[in-house]
Structure formats: C-alpha cells, structure tokens
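User: For my dataset I need records formatted as: sequence, then structure tokens, nothing else. Please produce one.
Assistant:
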Amino acid sequence: MDVETVAQRLKAFGYEARAEDGTVLAFCVEKVRSAIKNDINWPDVPEGLEHIAVDMAAGEFLLTKKTFSPEDLDHLDLGYAVKQIQTGDTNTVFATGAGSMTHEQRLDNFINYLLSYGKDGFHAFRRLRW
C-alpha cells in the first residue's frame, strides 16, 4: 500500500487528490499501516489485507478532510454510492438520492464503513506475542 494507491481509490470515490494532500495522505497510510501491524503482530501489512488497508487509509483521509476542510468534500456525490452491503450478519445501508439522510450523514456512514470494513478478517493473520 502506498500513497498513490490510496489517491487512486479516492479518485474512484470522486475526490481528486491535490499536491497539498500529499502529507496528509502519507500520514494516513502510515497510521493505518501501523495500526494493522500492531493488531496482527506482523512486521508489515500482509498482501491479504492490502485492499482493506487502502480503504482504511482512504477513510482516515476523508475523516481528516471532513474535520479540517469540510468544504473540500462538498462536491462528493454520495448519491451513487452502494445502497446496501451485506456481509454475513453485518448489514450497512446508505441512503441514496432524496433519502432520509443528509449529505453529512451519508458521508459519516461511508467513512465509518471504510474504517471498519474487513477488520473482522484480521484474526486470520494474527500472530502470538511472547
């Protein structure tokens, strides 16, 4: 996982990373990398968790932008986002179009999804600590 991969993922969501986003993107990538490595006790993020790490880093970046520069995210169109995702017993529903949720609520749900999706798969990679 690198900054460019996360920038491409953000582009898929409709956010075009700018040059001044580089430092924040790098921080988010390293924050997620460290969190995963500490959680599973590996020296680096395994290949099987790369896609989850990219989404988590994108979620961290969007959360940072929402906190410090919310106007940068005003142009994101979350109306095209997936309406419902079901994985096992977990069901995530996003309001679309003229749904009952505001733009900010949809953004919050989307960010929470990016930050939490796939964490249950970490246990398959965990190593014991002595």
